[in-house]
Amino acid sequence: GAVVSQHPSWVICKSGTSVKIECRSLDFQATTMFWYRQFPKQSLMLMATSNEGSKATYEQGVEKDKFLINHASLTLSTLTVTSAHPEDSSFYICSASKAGPRETQYFGPGTRLLVL
Amino acid sequence: KNQVEQSPQSLIILEGKNCTLQCNYTVSPFSNLRWYKQDTGRGPVSLTIMTFSENTKSNGRYTATLDADTKQSSLHITASQLSDSASYICVVSEGPDSWGKLQFGAGTQVVVTP
Fold first, then answer.
1. Binding-face residues of B in 57-86 toward A, CB within 8 A
2. How high is the pLDDT of residue B48?
3. What does the buried/exposed string (b/e) look like for B16-42 if buried means 16 or more CB atoms within 10 Å of the residue's CB?
């Protein structure tokens, strides 16, 4: 149990376009979902925390207008990278917890974004 | 400054040998400490989780230890296999009064060679 999926697994887009990444909890209801970004040979960096039905809480330095997060249901959260630029190329990983931030986070497989 | 420091940054070991990875943290108070295995291009997968009262936790050939007094943890891999090649990440959960925000180490890149 506790499987988290992401779609797409990788995406290549042109600079200036927007990209949406989906994160789904397949066999449990995720009260809280998290979005991370990971650059090569670096650790995961938390971008934002989202609770179902409410606005996401963004970490310092993360532009909320550029990285739009929607957590419309207990099994789905989306991250939209608006007007993507090459510096947004990264590995985006979501995680989900069953009953609040202090519960174990289950990570998705990640989405590789390459902006040309 | 990162509150979770891992060493070594990378290591190469021969198949069948043992190795030990280190994690030092300054997160205080903390709720629990976890070790994750992350294959290249994949999301992290949990190996072990320990609360402050636990000293050791095993998962197959992986054994984690925790010394909450010195704020040190280690992950020991026994009889390494080629499939153990991955990045191993130490993650400390803040707590108990916080929202349990996770503090990630930078990881140790392990390469197992035949």
1. none
2. 92
3. eeebebebbbebeebbbbbbbbbeeeb
